Amino acid sequence: MKWSIAFKTTALYTALFGLILAAAAGGSAWVLTSRSIRLERLNRVASFVADRFPGMEREHFDLETFAQANRIHIDVVGPRRNILASYGPDPGRQPSPYSEAARQALSREGPVLIRVADLEGPGFAGRLTTGGFLAILAGMLALAAVCGALLVRRMMRPVREMDRTIRQISANDLSTRIDTVHSHDELKELAETFNGMLDRLQKSYEQQTRFVSDASHELRTPLSVISGYANLLRRWGGEDRAVRGEAVGKIIEETENMRRLVERMLFLARADRSTQAVRFERFDFSALMREILEETGLFDPEHVFTAQIEPGVSGAADRALVKQAVRAVLENSIKFTPKGGEISLSCRRRDGAVELAVRDEGIGIPPEDLPHIFDRFYKADASRTRGGKSSSGLGLSIAKWIVERHGGKIGVRSSPGAGTTVTMVFPASPAA
Question: How many C-beta neighbours within 10 Å does residue 341 have?
């Protein structure tokens, strides 16, 4: 069962101080009761002696023997406070206020005072003074404070464990986690929240490490090609026109690939830092899709491009980014669709939103790869790439970020040999 720290601390100190109050009240009642019983006994004895002290007629009642038997000391005090007679053992010291009682009696000399002192030990209750009681109470409070501090320290043990665990965490090792087994309060929630933060940090760190590694690998490939053809030019390109043309063409192609890769990496870096600008404007999505269709048909005559564009579909978005997202999806379709295959673009309004789709007759995507196609630098089997063309694995990641930044959704339907359809849904009026 979960108990809050405030409740446990309150219950602890309430119990401790409740015990102190109960002990103080019980101790006071015991002392007062003991003293009352003792005084009551002495009062009865004093009354008994006073009733049997008429005229100092000792022959009728032996006060000495009575005092010896009851371990009391009897003084007969005259009118002038002088002691007329004493009976019983000598008390040896002044009795305490709780160990004597007095009664008035008549004698031949006039009224006298019969004072009876108890010679039995007063006990703890009889010796306890106000100062002693306060000292005991202060000691109990101090003991309660120490016990409370020890128990609270035990309750806060998870905090110390957290501190030790946090000190062990470093950028090189984010695998350490805080133990949440022994906590059943807010500290457990704090530990779980902190562990969740570490999980996210570790995932982000691993993604960053993988991003750097993949980026280095992607940049190494065009650089190796450029270096190889540059060496080819240096050796044989001067005399052979064909070699020179091939080398220069490959260098330009790989330079363009590297430029596009760097631009995409910079785009994602700005997106991660939330510095990528998004400028919303109202424009015609239908016209944008027709524009993309015409431009793609000019530089790729190897495929058949069709369109199902509903006229007059407009909305508010960043036109350049929407175009970039559609082109990123379209480039993937071109890479994985055989020559002569059909690639279709569609634009329509659905449920108040704008739906853009790119459908191809390509080789499709295996089910095990579908959950990962939007991951950065993720590539399926290299044999799927048409014509040996490489893919950076960043295009769909960028498309996903653009769509989600506009408050929309992106989805994909595909199966091997049946083609692929990527659908992007943009809200007609996205929230600011």
Answer: 18
* Span 23-36, pLDDT tens digits: 888 878 877 888 78
The three-state secondary structure class of 407 is coil
Domain assignment present for residue 142? The answer is: yes
Please report where in the chains the tokens 């986690």 appear, as a residue.
177
> Pairing mode, if any, of strands 72-77 and 83-87?
antiparallel
The CATH number of residue 422's host domain is 3.30.565.10
**Same domain? 335 vs 201:** no
Give the domain-ending residue among 276, 309, 329: 276
Structure tokens at 329: 């999806």
Q: Which domain holds residue 238?
A: 166-276
Whether residue 100 is found in the same domain as residue 30: yes
d(CA 293, CA 286): 11
Task: Count the domains in the chain.
Answer: 3
Helix (H) or strand (E) segment spanning residue 404: helix 395-405
Determine the Cα angle at 190 with ends 186 and 199, to 5°: 150
pLDDT, one tens digit per residue, over 295-335 is: 888 888 889 999 999 999 999 999 999 999 999 999 889 98
Residues 6+ apart with CB under 8 A from 319: 281, 283, 288
Q: What is the 3-state secondary structure (H, E, C) of 83-109?
A: EEEEECCCCCCCCCHHHEEEEEEEECC
Q: Domain boundary at 229, 250, 276, which?
A: 276
What is the C-alpha separation between 118 and 209, in angstroms, rounded? 92
User: Where do runs of H (alpha helix) occur along 156-284?
Assistant: 157-168, 186-232, 241-272
For position 309, what pLDDT does the model report?
Answer: 93
Q: What is the tens place of the pLDDT at every residue in 129-162?
A: 677 778 888 888 888 778 877 777 777 777 777 7
pLDDT reading at 235 higher than 50: yes
